[in-house]
Design a protein that fits this description.
rotamase (chains A, B), Cyclophilin, E_coli_cyclophilin_A-like (chains A, B), homodimer
Chain lengths: 277, 277
């Protein structure tokens, strides 16, 4: 019998193979084109996630913009203030936070991949997030993959506070791992961010404010009436089914592929997400 | 003395560090938004490139469309014929070609990277293209990186003829390596392709023809008057300067990075391209 394809595996999944993200760790970013759903990662960046929850509850991003779109790298949003303009007040949020580039291995369930990786001694998934760890240093961190949400910073390691956020829209920039605080991952609606016209300024900034993409609102799902929520299920990454799904991507067995790769990079694994009607 | 940054290295480059792509192997794709410049790879896919030259000379793609945009994967263009419609005639081009998934190692100058790769025994650059090879099998091939141009095929390995072409717009789909014929790489104007709104049909096809992106023309640069050409220079990939540039990306030494990665994946290396005014 030939191995099952990804779709066949998903078709045979049971409810226990899926999880519903915690609404208190889920952001809805409302754009003209629709809703982007983001899962926050308190296990990796508890201080940043706490601040982001406060910022979302207080409507910090409402009326702000996506002001940067750099091809094959990131889109970035938040409060871009022009010269002489006052920054938007951050209300009850904290202005300064510690850097949260990595965390101790202890206490973090980690589902390792057997595949080799050039950037880290071990890669795998933790809490559904693509991640890596170094047993010698005793540290684990989220890996920068397509759809990763991170907290922009300036030169100082502790200069991010979660107001300025970026999403990876290109080849996984793993060189950023352990150099910046990652706070979550886009689960749904990525195609609304990835097509934002690239900025023509340095680093893809939209120098002409008219090019920026307005953000109608960013809210925590837990603050949105249940009837207005997007009911998502995400495939669990710590199950035998997930291992089988990864294997079906590592070695494609459909009729089209002539040569299975025998390998997969962490960031080539798209964790299945489905919308429940 | 600290190592030089990428920009400092490029600023110190000499004319011999750069090359001008052969106009007879350069395609201009003219869109409403501007020009995409593509370099063809006759060393990897001579039969496909010969056919593509014929198709371009005869204006095959003029008036056709980009009809597929799949998030984190590819855009695809060519002749999408609806049910009951006759396909566009291919003129002097050949309807059938051999598969050109890889080629012998012999006769191909290959500049290897020291970095580990999960997909192939060796990676590096050949003729400016990201590539890989397997000495045991004696074969070399282009690697699917961001901006790679490939020839769409159906189930049969030899079912591509170069009329339907795709460009990678997401995480490097290296699982396609050695499963399909690659024919070139986008050198300039990638941001015109990467923002094409994603198709809502299966595999990102634009089912509604009004969503497709019109192609004004695809021409060989050698068929365009010199005054209308885009004068590009591409950094050579077989020089000490290129090695230094790669090292400057492998281990970032600017003030922002706190932890140099000590590694770089083949597809994280963007070969510098500059427009000569």
């Amino acid at each position: 019998m030939r191995p099952r394809t990804t779709q066949e595996l998903l078709d045979a999944s049971t409810p226990a193979d899926w999880r519903r993200p915690d609404p208190a760790s889920t952001l809805y970013m409302e754009l003209e084109g629709g809703r982007v759903v983001i899962e926050l990662a308190p296990d990796f960046a508890p201080e940043h996630v706490a601040n982001i929850r406060t910022l979302a509850k207080e409507g910090f991003w409402d009326g702000l913009t996506i002001y940067r779109s750099q091809d094959n790298f990131v889109v970035q949003f938040g409060d871009i203030t022009g010269e002489g303009e006052a920054p938007k007040p951050i209300g009850g949020a904290r202005a300064a936070l510690p850097a949260e580039f990595s965390r101790p291995i202890e206490g973090l369930a980690f589902h390792a991949l057997p595949d080799r990786d050039g950037w880290a001694p071990e890669t795998g998934f933790a809490g559904g997030f693509p991640a890596a760890r170094d047993p010698a240093e005793g540290q684990a961190w989220m890996a920068h993959c397509y759809g990763t949400l991170g907290a922009g910073r300036d030169m100082a390691a502790d200069s991010s506070n979660g107001t300025e956020l970026y999403v990876v829209i290109g080849q996984a920039p793993r060189q950023l791992d352990r150099n910046i605080t990652q706070v979550g991952r886009v689960l749904h609606g990525m195609e609304l961010l990835s097509v934002v016209p690239r900025g023509t300024g340095p680093l893809g900034f939209h120098e002409d404010p008219s090019q920026r993409v307005p953000i109608k609102a960013v809210r925590l799902a837990s603050e949105v009436p249940e009837t207005e929520r997007t009911d998502l299920q995400v495939l669990r990454t710590d199950t035998p089914l997930f291992d089988a799904v990864v294997e079906s991507r590592r070695n494609r067995r459909d009729d089209w592929y002539l040569r299975p790769a025998g390998h997969i990079d962490l960031c080539n694994i798209a964790v299945p997400v489905r919308v429940v009607d």
